[in-house]
Amino acid sequence: MSGLEPLAAMGFACSVLRLVEAGGKIFNIAQTAYQQGTIDRKTAKEYTSILFQLSNEMLSKSATAPAKPAHCEVELLKTAKTCRDVSRDLSEDLTYLDSLASKGELLAAVKLAAKVSWRQRRLKRLEQNLKDVESRMQKLILGRVL
């Protein structure tokens, strides 16, 4: 049988959707931090570890991909790469916010972020990437089911 096994592909897709869900929660944490100047450090660390775990899981699964994958498998692998990149960037942002919170400098960072809005633009870009991934995954899954 060529390509990914159906069960492996479904597990892969589930990992992507779990990552999208965790990413959405991280966006909420980051937005709260930037708007209110507070961060729930325990939840932030929890979701950072979830992102790290899912990203590593997807990396190991994509390493076992066939040499000549089918079109839908190529889409799945591209989606996995996008998810890994987004999860890395989100983890960096949460680590940054957490380090500021531990130093008591989060409020100063929020004021600075208001002046320099590139971090917020970056978050919006990452959020849009995750929404695109989620949409792509839903279309792929529905296309296979129907």
TrEMBL record:
Q: Where on the tree of life does the source sit, at the highest rank?
A: Eukaryota
List where this protein forms a coiled coil: 116-143
Q: Does the keyword Coiled coil apply?
A: yes
What keywords does the record list, in alphabetical order? Coiled coil
**Protein name (database record):** Fungal N-terminal domain-containing protein
